[in-house]
Each structure stands twice: as C-alpha cells, then as structure tokens.
Specification:
The protein has about 210 residues and is mostly helical. It is built from twelve helices and no strands. Helix 2 crosses helix 3. The structure holds a DNA duplex (13 and 12 nucleotides).
Length: about 210
DNA sequence: GGCCAGGACACCA
DNA sequence: TGGTGTCATGGC
C-alpha cells in the first residue's frame, strides 16, 4: 500500500475534513501558533477570547498590549510565550510588509517559508501549516501524528527528521494543494480517532497494514 | 492525580 | 547535531 492508496482509503473512510477550521487566513495563522503542543479545544477558547475582544486581525493584535494579549490567550496554555510569538509575527508583518497579509501570503512559497522560519516562535510545522492552510500553496505538513502513524506502518524510521518525512510525502504524492490539505487533516483524524494508545485499530481503516 | 495535547527554542556538550 | 528542560492550561 503506497501513500496515495493510504490517502484514498482514509478519505473514503473519514470523508472530507474541511480544514483548516477557521474563517480567515489570519485566523489560520493565529491558530497555527496557538496549537503548538496544545489540544485544539483549548486553542478554540483563546480564539473566541480574541474575537470577543475584537482583536482577531493584524491591526488588532498589533495594537493590543502584550500583557492584555496574555490574558486572552490563557486557555491555550503557554500564554506568555505565545503572546510573544504572535507579537513577533505581527511586528514582522508590519515592519516588512506594512501589515498587508495578502501581500505577504502571495509570496513565492519557498520565500514565504524562509520568511516565516526567520520569525522567532515559528518552526517548520507552524510555517508549513500557514503556507498550506492560509496561503493555499502545496507544502506537506508533518506533525507528531504523522510521525506516529507512519512509524507504525513501517514507512518511516523513528529517528527520521522533519524534512525527511516531508520529502517522502511530497515525492510520492501529486504536488496538489487539495491532497496535501486533506491528507494532513485525515492523519490527524485517524490518530485522534483510533491510534492514540494501545490497544489500537478497532476502527482503523489501515488496520491490516499496521504492524504496531 | 498523572499524563498528554495538531512545537519551538535555549542551553549544553 | 543531538539530547534535555521549559513553557501552562484543560480534559480524561
């Protein structure tokens, strides 16, 4: 079973995932930073706080004090460092792109990635999530679920690096934003639904191929 | 009451 | 470059 087979099996089993769960590209970026090592439920609470406060926009985050931002982000955990990371991104956006998010997101993908990785607090997964789900450009997102699931399937080594895993997927799948988008979301759904802990795989569509 | 969640970074050797 | 500690709330 190759990667495309797995993708198709997951897709027919779980259906379309409609990711990223956000109303705007900016909300995707905020969510991508807030969800670092954090359950999505807690991220949703923090995003609700930002909406209620009327600051879920580049201008809003730019103007709000870091101290106030911390209090709004509390439900998502790591609130001090996440407030700083959001501020880092926003200050970068205003200093280098005049706060114009559309302009920034329309950059050529490899340039967009290097710009994002230059911001303190945005690592590879967060950068790729922003490129794929906010800018709608084809880059594969690797996360802890991807690693866990495909280690169990025997398709990646346990010491494989982020870039090695990313490259594996991109080399064996059509370079298609829609496929990258759905596949990552389906992996998350699979891992959350059936692969979390042992015993696993009662409902797993990959059961017969998982050697865990 | 311990473990973990859609990571990233500083520090150290 | 690789390993380890830190950041912190909420659900189970």
């Amino acid at each position: 079973m190759n990667l495309l087979d797995i993708y198709n099996r997951l897709k027919s089993h779980f259906g379309k995932q409609h990711w990223w769960p956000a109303d705007t590209p900016f909300e995707v970026i905020v969510g991508a930073i807030l969800t670092q090592n954090t359950s999505w439920k807690n991220v949703e609470r923090a995003i609700e706080n930002l909406k209620d406060e009327g600051v879920l926009s580049p201008e809003g985050i730019y103007r709000i004090s870091e101290k106030k931002l911390q209090t709004l982000l509390k439900p998502s955990g790591f609130f001090k460092i996440k407030a700083k990371r959001l501020k880092n991104f926003i200050n970068f956006l205003f200093e280098k792109y005049e706060g114009n998010l559309n302009h920034f997101l329309s950059l050529e993908p490899s340039l967009l990635r290097s710009e994002l990785l230059g911001i303190k607090g945005i690592g590879k997964e967060t950068a790729d999530s922003i490129i794929l789900y906010a800018a709608n450009k084809p880059t594969f997102v690797v996360d802890a679920y991807t690693r866990r699931v495909f280690e169990r399937l025997g398709m990646i080594e346990k010491d494989a690096t982020y870039d090695e895993i990313k490259q594996l997927f991109e080399e064996h799948l059509p370079r298609d934003t829609e496929i990258y988008n759905e596949f990552h979301a389906l992996i998350v759904e699979l891992a959350k639904d059936t692969c979390k802990k042992r015993p696993v795989c009662e409902k797993c569509p990959l059961e017969n191929n998982c050697n865990f």
